[in-house]
Amino acid sequence: MKNYIKTKINLFKNRNKESRNLEIGPGEVRIPGFETLNIANSPVTDYIINASKPLPFPNGTFKVLYASHILEHIPWYKTLDVLKEWQRVIKIGGEIEIWVPDGYKIAKAFINAEDGDNYLDLDGWYKFNPQKDPCIWASGRIFTYGDGKGTLGHPNWHLAIFSYRYLENLLQEAGFSEIRKMENSEVRGYDHKWINLGIKGRKV
């Protein structure tokens, strides 16, 4: 009930703002100038909503929609529908900026490590993997770890994997143009560094 009330209050408070941006899945620090939407409440969350569901905003509400390491938590077979819904709430001429784990890079690094060319220290992420085994590393990067206790349905599991080619095709199908790969210098919030794959498109 508290989450519902907080969401309704912020929807009302922000409804008439002239220039609006939305971050889906904020970190611990709010990006200046962005409203925030997340599946769980936090001090920097404005709207407690599942981002895979219809969003409670009119068509063309936001100039920029930013989603860093969120899309992989949505089931892979729902990705296109979700991107179409996110596109709906972006203004004509507005932009979407998405960051995800680079599935191509993960798969290639795993295969190379198994074949003896191990460069996984470039990533350096070894949660639950003190032995630095490449297979455990790949499992963690592809599936992540939920709540660390094996609870199925926890929102921290990864449910999709992406390459740039695939994301570019999805954004085109969802109605975006001027699609390009982003550089890590364009990260607005937390930088996932080596694993990061960023893509940007404009609504036409």
UniProtKB/TrEMBL annotation:
UniProt-listed InterPro entries: Methyltransf_11, SAM-dependent_MTases_sf
Domain Methyltransferase type: 45-96
Highest taxon, organism lineage: Bacteria
Annotated protein name in UniProt: Methyltransferase type 11 domain-containing protein
Organism: Belliella aquatica
Gene3D superfamilies on file: Vaccinia Virus protein VP39
One Pfam family matching this protein: Methyltransf_11
